[in-house]
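COMPLEX REQUEST
Ligand: nicotinamide-adenine-dinucleotide
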Amino acid sequence: MADMDRSRISILGSTGSIGVNTLDVVAQLGGRDAFDIVAITGNSNVALLAEQARAFGARLAVTADEKQYAALKDALSGTGIEVAAGRAALVEAGQRPSDWVMAAIVGTAGLAPTVAAAERGADIALANKECLVSAGELFVNAVSDGGGKLIPVDSEHSAIFQSLEDDQRHAVERIVLTASGGPFRTFSREQMAGVTADVARAHPNWSMGLKISIGSASMFNKALEMIEAKHLFGVRPDQIEVIVHPQSVIHSMVGYTDGSVLAQLGCPDMRTAIGYALTYPDRPKLDVERLDFAKLARLDFEAPDEVRFPALRLAHTAMDRGGVQGAVMNAAEEIAFHAFCDKRIGFLQMADIAEQVMDEMVGYGTAITMDDVFAADTEARRRAAEAIAQKEMAA
Ligand code: NAD
Ligand code: MG
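STATUS: Structure written out below.
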């Protein structure tokens, strides 16, 4: 690892699905003997956070939840591991000098600490796609101005990144994002109307956090990923295609001007993309399942359906309108997602709320600074909450 100079690392969101997989990769590559774990962060699950901090010899452990400070302090007493809590402490975790930062907090909560890490020049392994959807070019510029690399972790974007040679970017014709179609791939709108979060979270191929699992069922996750691809790879919206591929074996593809299509394939296991982001441009040796093509036998493809999955249409709307519409779409949907999990609105109403708030906030302005992004985010959340309350009253 020494020649890569990514030995000092931080993991924002270490207790989540991506965070746990990241620590598994770190353990496979030598653990605390090979890496200096500068900071790890979590939210309410302080028992796991403390266990991780001890096992990996982290220097700083931060919980986003101030009420959990005492519990975390207690769990790590006598270890010499520094403990902190709250939003400012999360930003501080991003700021602590390290070579590589895994951005794996879920939602807009991840933006400020990730930007803090980007601004001081760390390489950013980006799982938190919401950073790019909300802040777009501002986020890309924060990383490049800081001098670090932006390395995608989202499986689709990692696949594209791996299929894209820097000196062939001019010859890229299209980006093909694969989508599993989620648990409701074959459902009618009527069938989707009555589903609960427990049903919607059961993804056919990937084991992931709650928000992204629900987002896979509504294909809102794919909508975020379209916008993520636009900013990561500098392509036009009309160069981004989505294809439903239920086996999730082809993780995404790049089509070139000569008709060639390059793809990256693998078993659905995030550790491959995480390991690549950690050792790029090298590849690590990882103990993950290998593809067995004979067992696989076939790969299927279907065109996506924007009528049953309106989130895909909203992604185009957001990209066409530009400005802060990405931040608005993301924030409104995050509020709608919580309302759906709390059984306050139905599954189909998540997209309705996002669309309504996006329409209300057309012409809300452009994002010149990060503060403009945060302002649009706050306003979209307020309006989404209002729209949800109105739907509840009408029901
Ligand atoms: P998760 O819910 O399993 O974990 C989220 C992490 O964020 C946890 O560590 C949690 O403690 C922390 N967190 C939650 N709320 C917080 C808050 N308000 N402030 C600070 N920290 C908070 O989520 P996940 O599935 O690991 O996803 C993390 C990110 O990675 C998301 O942006 C998701 O879209 C992206 N992603 C995940 C996968 C996957 O396979 N899970 C794949 C691609 C991209
Ligand atoms: Mg993905």
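REMARKS: The longest strand covers residues 172-179. Residues 13-19, 42-43, 45, 64, 90, 104-106, 109, 127-130, 154, 206, 208-210, 212, 270 surround nicotinamide-adenine-dinucleotide (ligand 1) (CB under 6 Å).
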